[in-house]
UniProtKB/TrEMBL annotation:
Belongs to the threonine aldolase family. The modification N6-(pyridoxal phosphate)lysine is found at K221. Gene3D superfamilies: Aspartate Aminotransferase, domain 1, Type I PLP-dependent aspartate aminotransferase-like (Major domain). It comes from Linderina pennispora. Residues 24-308 form the Aromatic amino acid beta-eliminating lyase/threonine aldolase domain. GO terms for molecular function: L-allo-threonine aldolase activity. The keyword Lyase applies. This is Aromatic amino acid beta-eliminating lyase/threonine aldolase domain-containing protein.
Amino acid sequence: MPCIIKHNEQATCNGSTTNFPFRDLRSDTATVPSPEMYQAMVSAQLGDDVFSEDPTVNALETRIAELTGMPAALFVTSSTMSNQIAIRTHLQAPPASVLCHRNSHIFQWESSGVAYHSQAQLIPVAPKDSINMKVQDVKGSFLEDDGNIHKAATKLITLENTYNGVVMPIEDIREIRRFANEKGVLVHLDGARLWNASVASGISLAEYAKEADSINMCLSKGLGCPVGAVLVGSEEFIRKARYYRKLFGGAWRQAGVLAAAALYAIDNIWPTMAATHKLTRRLLDGLVELGFKPELPVETNMIILDASEAKVDMDELAKALGERGIIIRTVYDGSFRIVTHHQIDNGCVDEVLSVANKLAAAQITPNIHATLPSNGD
């Protein structure tokens, strides 16, 4: 049975209720609104967003357009919807192919939406010499619009920043953008965690936005909102995107109650990301001492580890932490993933490392289990 939050104070895990706070390290989507965020939602001015009359939604769209330097923005329910609307808006008619990283969210985790919604062919690109795609990787998979009826010419290049927590270097983005311009194709940036990338790199959202025709920015990951994402682009692009939002069933009415959470998060949670990144690094350092090996550089709030040589059994660690209201995913595509967020604090990291160290010691001294803190401590 998964752990279930109860009044933001207790967690029900494996059928029993702990006396510890609920702390979820599976994803930064696991956050819940704070009382302050709830108050912002309750106090929101509302209207009908289908008619573009919700003042809080309008304020959010204006705010993010200004932050990115883009002319317009559209508030939608999720990053998946945002990406799919963007691709459908850019691709006016088949045939077309779309380049993406082979492990990108668009390729791996969006239910083959590009094929379904846009009737386009995804071409997954495997970077040869780096984690993120470089321009030479894009060139190697690019299909020219040369009149060959056997091919679906590349019409769109999609990038992802961050990719599994790794920041895509701005110069690589610029080089791909220059190549796209030379070929007359568009660039969409899946910036679901661009908030994190901007904080980690020191590069503004607007600087990233210069290199893309559209950007998806998630609100329910690092910003900790209960629902939502924002798509930005030109005024004409957003006008068309608004139509596809309706077509996909994503038009909503008094959505300002959710937009208010996002406005609160931009002002109050986004500024805490640097501290979250620092905390993530401290957690990584402690786990490395126990034999865990990072599979990717840890630059933001995400850790992906190889546990094959660790001194701790992952199932035992997950169980011991679950009894203390700390939830981890033991296997993530053959690896062990941890994602921190603003509701994970130093105390949580201390507990994870303390429990892990005691379990590791127990491999040498079996009776060490007796020293593990009980649920009542």
